[in-house]
Amino acid sequence: MVCSLGEAEAVTVRGASLAAGWRPCEEMYVVAEGETLHGISDRCGDPYILERNPHVHDPDDVFPGLVLRITPSSPRPSVPVSPP
To answer: What's residue 66's pLDDT?
Structure first.
């Protein structure tokens, strides 16, 4: 996948890079394998993903390659999970 960042600048993202833990929260976001709307919303700080994407009819029907429009803000802090 090639994402254009300007006229003379482009970034290529492939396989393992998409699955890596760090992904930028851009206005146009491409869902990677294993991601959920809830996870994207938490990481990118956008609680209104469904409202901004009327083409997503079922929040549980999210698949790799789905393009979402998000409004990135500061991500919510992760809550550490303590082992049982």
So the answer is: 95
